[in-house]
Design a protein that fits this description.
The chain has 13 helices and 27 strands. The chain is of the alpha/beta class. Among the domains are: about 210 residues, 3-Layer(bba) Sandwich (FAD/NAD(P)-binding domain); about 100 residues, Glutaredoxin. The strands form five sheets. The chain has an eight-stranded mixed sheet with strand order 7-6-15-16-17-14-18-21. Helix 1 runs parallel beside helix 4 and helix 1 runs parallel beside helix 7. The two termini are about 40 Å apart.
Length: about 500
């Protein structure tokens, strides 16, 4: 095998071009940082796989300018229908579930293959092409940079970026090369997943069928009319070699009360729950499934990987461009690994409870969920809590070294609360550090912000601002990813913060 040296390496190499790697690439492209993105596959994925795009992801996409395109290509799920014993026992509305919490107060289904093609297209508009069919074969690093050996079509080349990002999935070659452990386990249950056409026409609702010995979900895949079917493989069939959809058809149709007219894709899988021991080793980082995998409960996996990419992307861009101190990168692991560990623990508890074969699981599926959930849905606080958690707008970085201060109910590390009127998310499209003030700020704030090179976004004081938790006249330093870094600083504190992190420094 011949080896070709790479004469001029970009500052960043991204390994893996799924949703996580593509989002990281888009972040770097928008910040004007050179990079390469490679993937050993020959092109974007062709299966629908991850289906749910959460509100926080759409907020990130709004910053990049294509949230509306994602929403237009997906299916808003208007309600969830609960079935038990062959009958519908409840229907709860998902319309405007998070009204007032986010510009995207709904649940969106958007097939991952469509999603990836859109991201690849957005990257192409930025003048960047994914290098398909290119895999990582070796990796080493020292204090000055990374040495990565890439293979394509029988030819090897050496790439020497300053930083490398492993976004290459659960079987990450980057993670293995770095010797980072991936502790966790695998659930015993075998699941099936199928994309199918169901008699009776397209159904936009999420249908959840609960049974003493079974569990089935059906949700829309795409506007063309396909439905996603997910459920437990009966214990008697888990060891059958070459298991097909036809083996499961009678049980699926009886449990869900449907008739399947055609199947486009079928697979079985075991669910894993793992979090890497570290998300960073020197100049190398892990993001997405390379760093964490967990049950599909709540549609969190892909969205969490995208959150990793956004968090890492702006920090890499600021450090590489010299607009912030390299120490900024030290905040990536503590911010994201803490959430990953919490998420895996939460989804693990929910998954075991709902799928458990014992009496407790049966009671939960046949008694508690069908009757307790509709009752709780009548309380606005319960709906808000569910949306805030599942949509990921509740994710906060209070313990981050980047987070400081508190003004009103908003503290450093919070996602900036959204106001619909005036829309305080509009300035976030700049992907830059900025200062927000709601009401009349202190007289010297504008001068201090200007001296530090920070745009000042002043919003009128409203009752909505009060309800969102802002303090009248207080200043909030907002990070490029829309999280509050510093809340309510006294005179001089803003300059001290920027000096500590090198914000505004020139390359």
């Amino acid at each position: 095998m011949s080896t070709t040296p790479q004469p001029v390496a970009p500052p960043v190499l991204i390994v893996g071009a799924g949703p996580t790697g593509l989002n990281l690439a888009l972040q770097l492209a928008r910040h004007g940082v050179r990079f390469r993105i490679v993937d050993q596959a020959e092109g974007p994925g062709t299966a629908s796989r991850a289906m749910v795009v959460q509100a926080r992801t759409l907020e990130f996409y709004r910053q990049l300018g294509f949230a509306d395109a994602v929403v237009a290509g997906g299916v808003m799920i208007p309600a969830v229908r609960l079935r038990e014993g062959g009958e519908e026992v409840a229907c709860v509305s998902f319309r405007d579930l998070g009204a007032g919490e986010s510009p995207y107060p709904f649940v969106l289904a958007y097939a991952q293959d469509d999603h990836e093609r859109l991201l690849v297209g957005q990257l192409a508009r930025a003048g960047v092409a994914v290098e398909w069919g290119t895999g990582l074969t070796a990796l080493s690093q020292d204090g000055s940079g990374v040495r990565a050996t890439l293979s394509r079509g029988g030819t090897e080349e050496v790439c020497t970026p300053a930083y490398l990002c492993g976004c290459d999935g659960a079987h990450s070659r980057v993670r293995e090369a770095l010797g980072i452990g991936f502790p966790g386990g695998t659930y015993d249950q075998l699941f099936y997943v199928a994309d199918a056409r169901v008699a009776g026409g397209f159904r936009e609702e999420l249908s959840v069928t609960l049974g003493a010995h079974g569990l089935g979900l059906m949700l829309p895949v795409r506007l063309s009319g396909m439905q996603r079917l997910i459920g437990l493989v009966p214990a008697a069939l888990t060891s059958r070699p070459g298991l097909t959809f036809e083996d499961l058809r009678p049980g699926i149709e009886a449990l869900m009360g449907i008739r399947v007219e055609g199947v486009n894709w079928f697979s079985t899988y075991h669910v894993h729950h793992r979090v890497a021991e570290r998300f960073r080793a020197g100049r190398c980082f892990l993001a997405g499934d390379a760093g964490h995998i967990h049950s599909p409960a709540g549609g969190q996996g892909m969205n969490t990987g995208i959150g990793d990419a956004v968090n890492l992307g702006w920090k890499l861009a600021e450090a590489v461009a010299g607009r912030a101190a390299p120490a900024l990168l030290d905040s990536y692991e503590p911010e994201r690994i803490a959430f990953a560990r919490s998420l895996v623990a939460t989804t693990d508890r929910a998954f075991r409870a709902v799928t458990g074969p014992g009496l407790g699981g049966q009671v939960l599926r046949t008694v508690l969920l069908p009757h307790l959930l509709p009752a709780l849905w009548g309380f606005a606080a319960a709906r808000k809590a569910l949306f805030d958690t599942v949509s990921q707008v509740r994710i906060a970085y209070h313990d981050s070294p980047l987070s400081a201060g508190r003004a009103g109910r908003v503290q450093g590390g919070d996602r900036l609360p959204w106001l619909g009127d005036p829309d305080n998310f509009v300035p976030l499209a700049s992907l830059s550090w900025q200062v927000h003030v709601y009401g009349a700020g202190r007289p010297d704030l504008a001068e201090e912000a200007d001296r530090l090179g920070l745009p000042l976004q002043a919003f009128r004081w409203t009752e909505a601002a009060r309800e969102a938790g802002f303090a009248e006249g207080a200043a909030y330093l907002v990070r490029p990813d829309g999280y509050v870094a510093l809340a309510g600083p006294e005179p001089g504190a803003l300059a001290d913060y920027c000096g500590r992190w090198g914000i505004g420094a020139k390359a």
